[in-house]
Write a structure and sequence with these properties.
Pfam families: SBP_bac_8 (PF13416). The protein is of the alpha/beta class. The protein is 37% helix and 16% strand.
């Protein structure tokens, strides 16, 4: 296990299970004009996240209440949530943010929208998994972002996902999510373009890379809001789609599928979900209490058991689904220059939105 985890952390991925559902907002004491109450011990903690789907938000809220922490969860897609926190930085509404990937947290850090706090469990996570330079954000969960299909239906899947976008026999048979305000669609875009960088190309990308992106969006079947990927697969609307690895087991159980994955030679992108205290919220003591609680080995172990996640906290790994641990130890991590991606992603998203999505 030690060798596997060292390998997994050698190339640090960016995060992303993204959720666009706005949850919570009931019974809280949030001041809409800024701040989250008076910062006293009875103040409701406002928790921002892009990882509240599939019952996660409700589970965390209930378990936190059992621990004596009153929270209100507000969920948005990763990019939208990042922009919101930055927009609010001079008059913050949220107290804690978790679930965003390293790239988004680096943006929040550079804007001084989050502030350093060393959790009690800091020694239980790999030093390079979060923000080793300054300790502003800390890792919770990691997962791979994979292209999946149902092995009950598909026996001749391609070995490289690029074949889906360029071979006409797959046209309309894979799902594409054009919602680039979400973290996972942004990560997919970054994964494609990172394989075709060219310093002389448009926005640092070769013509071949942009042609692939164009084909990806043109030939895919747009995601249907409110409809699960696996529902579409079982109805024979599509055959392939992208999902975070933590969602596979539950969907196989629900839909009766047997998930296969396309894993190219260059690997798959990974996400590492992080947590941080929002700067200047006025509820620092309770924010730190929540971070200490949620990232602990005990809670992350329970979370892993409930949601098939892969905890970063070493003390929680033994509570994770053994199949999840095995899977994460065998999926090669795509080598992505996330510094370059962070600098260029905004321009990439703008170009794709204007030229390829409309």
């Amino acid at each position: 296990m030690v060798d596997i985890r060292k390998k997994r952390w050698s190339l640090l991925g960016i995060a992303a299970v993204a959720a666009v559902t706005l949850t919570g907002c009931a019974g809280g004491s949030t001041d809409a004009e800024g701040g989250s109450g008076d910062g006293g011990s009875d103040a409701t903690l406002i928790v921002y996240t892009n990882s509240n789907s599939d019952g996660r938000g409700e589970w965390i809220t209930e378990k936190a209440a059992d621990a004596g922490i009153d929270i209100e969860i507000v969920g948005l897609g990763g990019a939208d949530l990042t922009n919101r926190i930055i927009a609010e930085k001079n008059n913050p509404v949220g107290d804690v943010v978790f679930g965003l990937n390293n790239m988004f947290f680096e943006q929040l850090k550079s804007e001084e929208a989050i502030t350093a706090y060393e959790p009690k469990w800091s020694g239980e996570v790999p030093a390079d998994a979060g923000d080793p330079a300054d300790g502003v954000f800390w890792p919770l969960v990691e997962q791979a972002i994979v292209t999946v299909y149902d092995e009950n239906k598909i026996t001749d899947a391609p070995s490289d996902e690029e074949d889906l976008w360029t071979d006409e026999k797959y046209a309309g048979r894979y799902e594409v999510n054009p919602a680039l305000g979400q973290a996972t669609p942004q990560l997919v875009l970054a994964s494609i373009l990172s394989r075709h960088l060219d310093e002389d190309g448009d926005l640092g990308v070769s013509d071949e890379g942009w042609d692939l992106v164009k084909s990806y969006y043109e030939n895919g079947s747009p995601a249907v809001e409110g409809t699960d990927l696996y529902a579409r697969i079982t109805r024979d609307e599509i055959d392939y789609g992208v999902i975070p690895s933590s969602g596979i087991a539950a969907r196989d159980e629900e839909y009766g599928t047997k998930t296969g994955m396309i894993v190219p030679d260059y690997g798959v992108p990974y996400v590492t979900e992080q947590i941080a205290q929002i700067n200047g919220s006025g509820n620092e003591e309770k924010a730190q209490e929540f971070i200490d609680w949620f990232g602990s080995a005990e809670v992350q172990g329970e979370f892993a058991t409930e949601f098939n996640s892969m905890p970063v906290n070493e003390g929680a790994v033994d509570k994770a689904n053994p199949e999840v641990v095995e899977l994460m130890g065998t999926l090669d991590r795509q080598d992505i220059d996330f510094g370059f991606v962070s600098e260029n992603l905004g321009a990439w998203v703008e170009k794709v939105t204007l030229e390829y999505i409309g």
